[in-house]
Design brief:
Layout lengths: L1 H43 L7 H7 L10 H4 L7 H7 L6 E4 L3 E5 L3 E9 L5 E8 L5 E11 L4 E9 L2 E4 L10 H4 L1
Antiparallel strand pairs: 1-2, 2-3, 3-4, 4-5, 5-6, 6-7
Length: about 180
Amino acid sequence: MLTNCANWQNGHESVNKARGAWQWGVLATVFIATLVISGLVRAETIEPELSTSAIFHSFNLRSIRSSLGPSLKVVCGDTFAAIETQGGFGPMNVTMTDKVLTVETPDWLYAIKIVSNKSPPIIHFSDGSKNSAYRTATVYSLSFDPASGKWNAVGEKGMFGFRLVDRAEWIQSDCAKGG
């Protein structure tokens, strides 16, 4: 009888060991599956690659400081494409290469060069008046906002490195108020 009890106890311990190994296997499988799924979810939220077409169609011009400021206060658009559709700057001559977008209006010349496509993407924005000596050039770091589908300036390079661009600095429009 004692031998049967010892055999039963040894058998019960090996069942417990097998059950414990099975539980750890299930736990490891669930953990790995969670990592894979979270990796797939994260892959969907990776910002799209910045291109000159993306700059023209989805770069939020209100997120930068430039000569565009006064015009952006009265037009409803916030991208070159939206402003072109509204005719906000008059006729626009748009030229795109792999790295440079040039937008020319009767009075202004804007050029945006993609300096780096690595995260965060960096652009060099320059604008100049055709009728005066006004010229500026600024380097901005960008971030893609999936909710709005827009690229926004989040950093501005100055003499002492990049500073964060505060949303409170963005140019607001009177278009909703004034019609």
